[in-house]
Amino acid sequence: MYNNKVTAEENKRETDIANRYTLNIAYSNLIDSFTISQNDDKFTTSKEQEYKANTYNKELKISKQEFDNVLGVNGKIEIQSKDGTILNTIDKDTQAEQDEIKVDLTSFKIENIVLETSKPQTEGSLNFEITKAIAKDNDYSIEEIKEFTNLKSSLNVVAKNSDIAVLNETTEMVTKLEEPSQKVSIELENNRLSTVTTNEAVAIGVTLENDSIDDVMFINPNFKIIMPKYIEKLDIIAVEVMFDGELKVAETKVYDNEDGTKTIEVQLEGTQTTFNNPIAKGATIVIIKRYNFRKNYSNYEYRNKSYCSEWWWK
């Protein structure tokens, strides 16, 4: 969801959220029906501000055994829209797989549904799960979206005896929203290096992962690689971006640090709008370099001390 503003239309992805509810029935002889109504979902911020969420129902799941036990052989649950239109009905003829009834609601693209039950035949519990999707399109800016911390969902439950409401209460579910994370990996493609002669065409691969909705889309990323101090001379032969057609190399620099180490800094430009495939994982920046070790480091175990600096975008 946090990526939607910079993701190409064909690559936008929805986020599914499943909430599980339990309807406890204590006095079945006093209740003729239950009406369970969804309220509008809300995004909330740390400052307790609320914004309407663009969500819709995808699936309703309920236990076949619990349905039969509580509502009886002639029981039913009508799934309705807010205006009373019947979308589907669960009854004795509804098929179940492994004791689970699944009702696909995706095609209706409806934000709020109402469940209307027949008269319960006995005391017990009725567990059901509703899966909703946070739609891939929204009207909020990137800055507004970054402020959203939770998705608040609620149901209103009314139990009736004839036309009299004997129960009327609301239950809330709060789902924490987690921002996609930055995942970067680095790999030295040749670990058999000479301490005597010049090491030619040594490749370092830096991968910016963006193959799933959990990953950020990178915008003008910049990274640094700190090379160990026993490298005396370092030349960059080439820098290439692979597995990504949206990022390109803008600038590459090599400079000395006060502690004797050297830094390779690469500035990329471009905005990612497409998720990569799981095999490639993400854009891979291949740095081809040549370097020599200092002469007084002829006997040692080579260790490449590399790390990436903070990533940022403008």
Describe this structure in words.
- The chain is mainly beta.
- It is built from two helices and 19 strands.
- It has helices at residues 64-71, 142-147, and strands spanning 15-25, 33-38, 42-45, 50-52, 55-63, 77-81, 86-90, 100-104, 113-117, 124-134, 148-161, 164-176, 184-188, 199-209, 222-227, 231-242, 248-256, 262-269, 282-293.
- Strands 2, 3, 4, 6, 7, 9, 11 and 12 form an eight-stranded antiparallel β-sheet that branches.
- A hairpin with a 2-residue loop joins strand 11 and strand 12 (164-176).
- The longest helix is centred in the N-terminal third of the chain and has 8 residues, at 64-71.
- The two termini are 20 Å apart.
Element layout with pairings:
Layout: E1 15-25, E2 33-38, E3 42-45, E4 50-52, E5 55-63, H1 64-71, E6 77-81, E7 86-90, E8 100-104, E9 113-117, E10 124-134, H2 142-147, E11 148-161, E12 164-176, E13 184-188, E14 199-209, E15 222-227, E16 231-242, E17 248-256, E18 262-269, E19 282-293
Antiparallel strand pairs: 1-10, 2-9, 2-11, 3-4, 3-11, 5-8, 5-10, 6-7, 6-9, 11-12, 13-14, 14-19, 15-18, 16-19, 17-18
